[in-house]
Amino acid sequence: MKKLIIYDLDGTLVDTRRDIINGVRYALGELNGPRLTDEEIKDCVGTGLHSLIRQVFRTEDDALADRGAKLYRQYYKEHMLDHSHLYTGAKEVLEFFKGRTQAVITNKPDPFSTQILEALGIANYFIDILTGNNGLPFKPDPASVFYLMGETKAKPEETVFIGDSLIDIQTARNAGVEIVCLSHGFTPEKVLEEAKPDHLVQSYPEILRLAREQHW
Fold first, then answer.
1. Measured distance CA(191)–CA(91) in Å, rounded
2. pLDDT tens readout for residues 17-43
3. Do 129 and 50 reside in the same domain of the chain?
4. In the sheet that 101-105 helps form, which strands lie side by side, from edge to edge?
5. Can you give the pLDDT at residue 152?
6. Phi/psi class of residue 177: alpha, beta or left (left: φ > 0; alpha: ψ in -120 to 50)?
7. In principle, which of 26, 37, 54, 211 could form an S-S bond with 216, CB 3.0–4.6 Å?
8. Do 103 and 168 fall within a single domain?
9. CA 65/CA 43 separation, integer angstroms
10. Residues contacting residue 200 through CB under 8 Å, at least 6 positions apart
11. Do you find a cis peptide bond into 142, omega within 30 degrees of 0?
12. Can you tell me the distance from the alpha carbon of 45 to that of 25, in angstroms, rounded to the nearest whole number?
């Protein structure tokens, strides 16, 4: 039985794609950045805000990245819930595991992460929401997973990570825990298949079936 269930946020629990893309496009427009497609922007998501901005501006200039990140934050603060919503079935999985310990690890910074989860009515399911500015290294460094395992006294075999990206797969592997990858997020299913996660599913109802089959 799994004792600790860890979730990624963007592309895993919450479909934040449209609002993130709109925020990035706003910053690009204000600073005359390159014209990018939605897919090109989406492919840069997942490694933290400053990394996202550096990638979309195609720059190593920290000053430009700082300006872009500031503009993104200004826009995103007002628009982060314009289109973002829970994925179908996510609430049911959270309910299924509510007798266990659940937490979120995301490279997305606060206050956005916690505010989104609170606004969507699921923040109370988690003992902790470890964000990109909490002082621990970004995923795929396993430090956040180890921290939660230490706090909950959960062994690797008692822990499962639910994510949607190659970064999530690598994080779980680095921590020695089981990984379930959802193909509904930011990473194409074929790319996830090639990375060979422990489980690859298309939706939360499939996770619910998997949990029952595996006696999690």
1. 27
2. 999 999 999 999 999 999 999 999 999
3. no
4. 128-130, 101-105, 4-7, 159-163, 178-182, 199-201
5. 97
6. beta
7. 211
8. yes
9. 17
10. 180, 181, 183, 189, 192, 193
11. no
12. 13
Does the pTM of the predicted model rise above 0.90? yes
- Domains identified in the chain, total number: 2
Q: Which amino acid is residue 178, in one-letter code?
A: E
pLDDT of 47 strictly over 90? no
β-strands 14-15, 199-201 pairing: unpaired
Phi/psi of residue 155, nearest 5 degrees: -80, 160
Q: How many residues does the chain have?
A: 216
* Residue after which a domain boundary falls, among 26, 51, 79: 79
d(C-alpha 73, C-alpha 69), whole Å: 6
Cα dist from 74 to 27, 42, 139, 186, whole Å: 9, 19, 25, 23
Residues 73 and 144 in one domain: no
d(CA 103, CA 124) in angstroms, rounded, equals 10
- Take residue 89 and report the two structure tokens written for it: 């079935």
